[in-house]
Each structure stands twice: as structure tokens, then as C-alpha cells.
Amino acid sequence: MGNLVYDSSVPQTWLPEVCRLDTFPHAPDVLADMILTPAERAHWTAMRAVEKRRHEWLLGRYAAKEAVRLVLEKNLDVRLSPDQIEIVTDPYGCPQVEYGQQAGHLLKPVLSIAHSQGTAVALAVLDPGARVGIDLESLAHRREDFETVAFSPDERGLLAALPADLRSEWALRMWCAKEAVGKALGRGLSAGLLAFHIARVDLSTGAVEIELRASALDQCPQLRGKSLEVQTNRESCFVSSTFIYHQGAAAMRPSRQEILDYLLQKMGELTQDWDYPDPVGPESLLFTGLGFESLDAVVLCTAIQEHYQTPMPFAELLAEIGQQQRDLSINELADFVNTHLRPSSGEASRRVQ
Ligand SMILES: CC(C)(COP(=O)(O)OP(=O)(O)OC[C@H]1O[C@@H](n2cnc3c(N)ncnc32)[C@H](O)[C@@H]1OP(=O)(O)O)[C@@H](O)C(=O)NCCC(=O)NCCS
User: Fold this and answer.
1) How many CB atoms neighbour CB 132 within 10 A?
2) Over 92-107, what HEC string results?
């Protein structure tokens, strides 16, 4: 078994792995015994959901474990069994990979899962800093009003310009592209369907270009101004999409200067209508200098945690400065964030699900 941990020298070009499963290779309970870790098995047993949902969860876990297993084998020549790979989810439902102690040192691929009509797909990429998303939908199960709900007038204009016989397939490709990007951001489509704006489609390659808008940009500000290319495919009655965005090692962990720049910009946004005699700078004090009240501090702390997708002990910090009856400069806040940011994203509290 290799002994590889993530560092900036790890190549970003390893091949991704997509795994698709259309049927259960064994009866579901037998499969569960074969592939799940004890924690996953307990979750599967306790899962209160209709049988269809339990089955798609299990098939999705199997597809995910196969994709992870194959990506490790092909790229690192490491062989793990499915029950040595645990799929946990972050608080937003985004799947993540964990290993048991024996393989704890190994690089963890990033992962995405989708299921539709008894078929499950998973995408694994061996770059812990990447963002990935996959989606799968059946052409046979579309509501009549789907396009009105899912697309803006501009997006419907794109569809209207396509040959009539391709429209329903491309509408589904566009939907799948939005879902893949939503999953890659880690929040699904919670920012709203129109926050994933389809700018262009390419009939010859299957590519769909998305630009983030509104609150999707709050979820991932580093993608502002970027055109995100999602690959879509049609196979029999299924349409699928895959999206892989390599952020690069540097983007995984901002420098202290980048944190300070972000705080100054955020502070500028929060206080844009406030009248200050002096410009806001690193030494500005939040409460006595900028006139912050407790609620403003809470808004700021929430925005910071949301931006870095990392919980930080702001309550303790605010309690401590309250007890000491002192103020906090933007510079000190940058030190605090710098101390509490983990080396990579995605280490927030996790649970098996
Ligand atoms: C996450 C979401 C895109 C999933 O889409 P879906 O069509 O319901 O289901 P899919 O089969 O395509 O994908 C399901 C898988 O997505 C993954 N997933 C769930 N939440 C996720 C998230 N926040 N980020 C990334 N992946 C996520 C899970 O692995 C899930 O499978 P599992 O529960 O078996 O592990 C969608 O439910 C969503 O956007 N949810 C959040 C906001 C919301 O509910 N909006 C209403 C819709 S507009």
C-alpha cells in the first residue's frame, strides 16, 4: 500500500473515475453486509425510508466505493476493499471519503453521487482540493412544466433556438449541469435554480457552460467571473453530467494576507453606508472604531464561516473580548481566522449517512 498524503506537489491530472451500476449484484442485505463499514451498516439498518430510497442509497454507496477503489488502484496502485472505505456526509449532505486506521494516511478522493430510477452513478477524483459533481436523470420522468420552473427566460431562449427534436434532451442536460455544479459547491441547488445560469451549450461536444449568480457566488466566491464547463451525455433514456473543478493547492488554504484582504472587502460591504472619518484598514477596531454592535459582529462571523465553509469558535472569541472589555482589530480577526482555518476544506464535522 502506498503512503501518500496530500501536498502541493501532488499532480492534479490523475484520471477521474466514474462508476455506474444499473442493478444489484446481490440481494440488498447481502450487498450491505459485503460492502458497508459497521457505522454504515448501522445507518442502513436504522434508515427509516421507503424501500426505493434505501435501495438507491445502498446502490449509490456501492457505486461510490467502487469509484474510490478504482481511482486509488489505477492512480496509486493501492487496493482497498469496499468496507475499508467509509462514505460520510457533511452537514449539508455532501458525501466525503474516510478510511479506517489501516489506510488513514492515504490521499482522499473527492466524491459525488447521483441516482435515478434504479441506477446509481458516482464520480471520484484524486485531488482533495477539487470540487466535483455528478448527476443522472431519466428522460422518461419529466413533468410537463419542468422547463418553466427550471430555467430563466434567457435559458429558455437557448432551448428554443435548438432543433425541436433535441429540445427535451437538452433541457434535461441543462438541468443535470445545474445539479452537478450545485453538488460541486457542496450545497446542491439551495442557492436557487437561477443562480446557476446556463450561458452556452455545445451540441457537438455535450458541454454546458454555467456562470454562478447571486447566492451561489456567496457559497463559492472564488468562482466569480468563471465560466464552468460541465460535460453532459445521453445514454439510452438517461442523461448524465459531470463537473470537475481543480482549484489548485494554493486555493485550498488561503494565506493570511488573502484572509485579511477578504475581511477588509467584507467589512467594506457591511459598512458601505456608514460614515467614517478615516478609511477602514487592518488596525480599525470593530466596536469603538467602526461602531459595530453585537448583531453586526454575529453577521460578520456568520459570513466568515460561510465563506470558508469552516466552523470557528467565534462565540468564545466574542465572550473573551467581552470579559476583558477590550476591542478587536481587523488584523486580530485575520489572525483568529488564520489560526482556525484547517489545512484543507471539507474537514467540518461529519457523520455516516
Ligand atoms: C443535493 C441535490 C442536488 C440532490 O439532487 P436529487 O435530484 O435530489 O438527487 P440525486 O440523486 O441527483 O443526488 C443525491 C445525492 O446527492 C448527494 N448530495 C446531497 N446533498 C449534497 C450536497 N449538499 N452537496 C453535494 N452532494 C450532495 C448525496 O450523495 C445524495 O445521495 P445519498 O443521499 O444517497 O448519499 C438536491 O436535493 C438539492 O439541491 N438539495 C438542496 C436544496 C434543496 O433541497 N433545494 C430544493 C430543490 S430546488
Assistant:
1) 22
2) CCCEEEEECHHHCCCC
Which of the listed residues 21, 183, 306 should we mutate to test ligand 1's pocket, taking the one with most ligand atoms within 8 A of CB? 183
| 143-171 confidence digits (pLDDT tens) | 767 888 899 999 999 999 999 999 999 99
Residues of the chain with CATH 3.90.470.20: 1-128, 135-249
Per-residue pLDDT tens over the stretch 284-333: 999 888 888 888 888 899 888 888 877 789 988 988 888 888 999 999 99
**Of residues 108, 110, 88, the one with CA closest to residue 6:** 108
Helix or strand or coil: residue 159? Answer: helix
**pLDDT tens profile 119-140:** 999 999 998 889 999 999 999 8
Q: Encode pLDDT of 32-90 as tens digits.
A: 999 999 999 999 999 999 999 999 999 999 999 999 999 999 988 899 999 999 999 99
Q: What is the CATH number of domain 253-340?
A: 1.10.1200.10
Res. 23: pLDDT tops 80: yes
CA of 289 to the centre of ligand 1 (A): 44
Phi and psi (nearest 5°) for 114?
A: -145, 155
Q: What is 135-249's CATH number?
A: 3.90.470.20
CATH number, span 1-128 = 3.90.470.20
Query: Which ligand 1 atom sits closest to the C-alpha of 87?
Result: 35
Q: Please report the pLDDT score of residue 119 as a whole number.
A: 96
Query: Which atom of ligand 1 lies nearest, measured to the CA of 93?
Result: 20
Cell of 168: 427535451
Positions of CATH 1.10.1200.10 in the chain: 253-340
Which residues line the pocket of ligand 1, CB cutoff 6 A? Answer: 57, 60, 92-95, 112-115, 135, 179, 182-183, 186-190, 193
Task: Tell me, in angstroms, the distance from the centre of ligand 1 to residue 335's CA.
Answer: 35
User: Residue 353: which of 32, 57, 18, 78 has the closest Cα?
Assistant: 57
